Amino acid sequence: MNLQDISIRDYLRDKGVEFRESGEELVAKCVFADCDHDSRPNEGHLYFNPETSQYNCKKCGAQGNLKTLMKHFGDEPMFQDAPRPRKVTRFDASLVEKCHEALPQPIREYLHKRGLTDDVIDKYKLGYGQFYRKQWITIPIKDVYGNYSYFKLRQDPADGDEKITYPKSGAEAQLYDWEILENLNGPLVVCEGELDCLALVSKGVAAVTSTHGAMTFKEQWAERIQKCGKVYICFDLDDAGRKGSDRAAKMFENGGACETYMVALPSELGEHGDITDYFVKFGGTVEDLFGKYAKPYPERIDVTQFSPMTADQLLDTLGLTIKYDAENKLSTFLCELSAYTESSQFNISYNAPSSTGKSYIPTEIARLFPEGDVMEIAYCSPTAFFHDVGEYNKDKNCYLVDLSHKVLIFLDQPHNELLARLRPLLSHDKKEIMLKITDKSQKFGMKTKNILLRGYPSVIFCTAGLKIDEQEATRFLLLSPEVSQEKIQQGISATIRKEANSEEFVGWLNENPDRALLKERIRAIKLENIQEINILHHERIEQQFLSDNKTLKPRHQRDIKRLLALVKSFALLNVWWRERNGTTITANDEDIDAAFKLWEKIAVSQELNLPPYIYNLFREVILPAWQAKNVLNSMLAEPVAKVGVSRQEVLEKHFAVYGRMLDSNQLRQQILPMLETAGLIVQEQDPDDKRKMMIFPASLYQLPNNSGNESGVNSDSVGNSATQGGEKNEALPF
To answer: How far apart are the first and last CA of the chain?
Structure first.
């Protein structure tokens, strides 16, 4: 059957598939699945475009064209689709010489200031002309056959900094300049931008670039370049440049035929700094570019400089910028480090009021990690998130959002719909998830897009909201920053020192050898590419966890995963001193001990499904207020039954303890209901005034006793009035 001689209407009729016409589409019952077994007689979910023969089932998602439909019915076409003719861009090549001759002296001087020599300007025919009613610098682009195919236009610097192509249509990404490869007998620089490329050529350095941006370098180009021996990749100092350089480097690594080096331009160039800035503003040299700033890819780090690291040693280094919050910063560091495992990541939720420093801890620790591995995100919609993070995959017709080995820090509670879509990844249900989102464009209106989520990230939420959905509570470790007077005082001192002379403070921080060594250690751990972490004596974990939790609850099934993730993260921290077989290491008893010691400090809040801030409010405000009131009651000549505390009394006690007022609505709508759900308090009407609710500690609540230890907290763990739930384990006096 000839594809070119049959329409989709004819083929459907030939196969006996009934259809109806609806506007510009054909509608039929689905032939791929049992989608329409319960549909009405004239109802169907399989839609065809009669012009393109493409189809899409709105119910099962089947999609394709006439060729795939014929294969479904067992009909092979007599011949395949004819190859598409190569696009011929309507470009007048005579414009190249015309615009070059029109290049004015001020523009030539501007190009000189950017490091371009006259020989390079003339050889590459840079010019000047009017297009789209504006004046532009013209950069002629050749295709792989050596034919001029379009202009890259750069607006006259006196008028603006717009960039565009002429003509707009048919300007496909090209390697600039193909001719560089013909006589190449030395190293090659792959950079970002035509003028950066020509600045290198002016220095006598062979260089190429993609004409369409950092993320458009093609694998077939990398294959052509493999023969050159050495490739140096140097993109701009911005997010697109970092992602693009990593992407290009992996292409050359996969080829394996040449040495690949990543050039990290000096940070003094600032955000968006590029090759031109390096030579012109910074005064950099070619020798330093290939020497001082270039590192082999994949990077190789001398691991003999490291030694085994304990939790206390790690806390000392983290304490340079984060005061107090020992369990918080240790848990957060391990969470971010767990991103470099294959499937042992865990998640954290910081819940606390504003100005308590809940986002400071994760973002400050993230500064130790490679910048490209950390994504700090404020509030955003699912569509914005997927477009910003995703990369379009033409083969799969979807946006690929690869979150493998990434740290996601949400600086505010994310959009509910985005959170719902991320839940399967947060709970490690499936490593690849296909989603559909709707997107609106000016040209096409509402349109469905496919999103492929891949990999398990380490995720940290920072939110001022105290109420936690149970679905999120069981997927996260719940933490809250300390709010003790000592910590606040230390924070004030550190802020004064930093703001008084920020340059001196940053210099002191960067020169600290322990911090520099920790940053190097993290990069070395990443390069080890550990896939699996086994646990020696895992039966010991089972025995101790079950001993600490006599009465098991459903959430313990997820809690044990977090405990195991802590064990594995401690092992990863000391990867070079753990038993290793290929990409698999084995955690030992030291890792188990360290994980249980940390777990004991944070387990109470996890057990109660409460942010530590709320649990500590119960211990430091509600309980003492109730105790004080009942002590006074017992001194009366005729003491009455135990009396509760009112909400107003709780607010007053909160001010006395913390020195700040608590929002009464937040107390009534969020805090007290959560404490009731956790079984810590009960609320009853005041018998003397039915309009008031009185608060009582739950009389049956005994912290240490779950026929052992309900929360998994060791009875010797010491309390801290402002930590995340670790406390001295003693029966409450009621």
So the answer is: 86
